[in-house]
Structures
1.
Amino acid sequence: MSTSPRRTHPSGGRRRRGMWNLLLLVPLFTLITPIFNYDQPRLGGMPFFYWFQFVGIPVGVLCTVVVYRASRGSAGPRDVDALEEGTRR
């Protein structure tokens, strides 16, 4: 039986998700192909459908990096002992 108290998150046990996580929806937009399935405008002879997907790759990477950097400080304790809650001694 463990006598150590259980640790809870300051917001009452639930993690609050940041507004930065909404940026992760931007890369998913490129998966909805019927929205941008057009031939015009062309860029260097390449149809809109293709160059829009190529532009979506760095935009998705940028959104992921921004969300990672904005949320890495709010992840909570990084010590393994602090993460263990129900260990037996």
Note: The chain has three helices and no strands.
2.
Amino acid sequence: MKNMKYVFAAMLLPLMFAACGGGNNKFDATGTFESEEVIVSSEATGNLQWFTVEEGAVLQKDQVVGVVDTIQLHLKKKQLEGSITSVLAKRPDITTQLAAIQKQIDVATTEKKRFENLVQSNAATSKQLDDVNSQLDVLKKQYAATKSSLTITTQGLDAETLSLKAQIDQINDQINKSIIKNPIDGTVITRYAKQSEVTANGKALYKIGDLSTLILRMYVSGDQLAQIKLGQQVKVSIDDGKGGYRVVPGTIYWISAKSEFTPKTIQTKDERANLVYAVKVHVKNDGLIKMGMYGEVKF
């Protein structure tokens, strides 16, 4: 019977130590891991002719991952280009049309010099010279009026093509937006669309996040707030899957300026704390840390 008491005491002792250890918080705060995520949406409406995104795929920034049907856009562009060609074909050839009048002016100018010489030698009358000068003035005014008219016509046609060119620029922008480019380096978390489906402007296609650096969102009490600062290095403990923990470094990069009620799933060093402050810690991921995992932080 006496031996049984010793056996019972030996069994109870580790439990007592464990209970004491459980009451002795070895962490300052806990939280869960998340990532900076971007939801990539379509900027065009049409059939997804090509879409290569798969969940878990690692994508590079600006990598082309899909194309929305652009046939109608290209046809509209060709139509506008044809309209510009048609309008420009109506432009008058100012140089050619003025060449005939300029030739008459050159002849009249030569004639004027000849009559000036004749008048000086009394071989022609002043009236004859005046008639040549009048004819030359009329030709010059005709030249100026014709040039002005042709210039106005040309400017009007050019202005007409500007609106057509602006429409082509819009279509080129739409065609460019039909090419789906991945915005950041990261891993595809969720895919919302498949190839050959019809998409629309603003419709989500997939969600991507940078999993190389994860974010541990933890909560601290008001008393702990004075113990942390931006850029501070902390130790983050993560379950190693073997009943123990492994410690990785982290850096505090964001501290909330407003308090909130303690989330039900979060533990703090002071279990009685009602109002806490959210804090974000950057943690380099070696691939073993997953979103949603819990982490314990020591300041």
Note: The helical segments are 2-23, 71-88, 94-120, 126-178, 222-225.
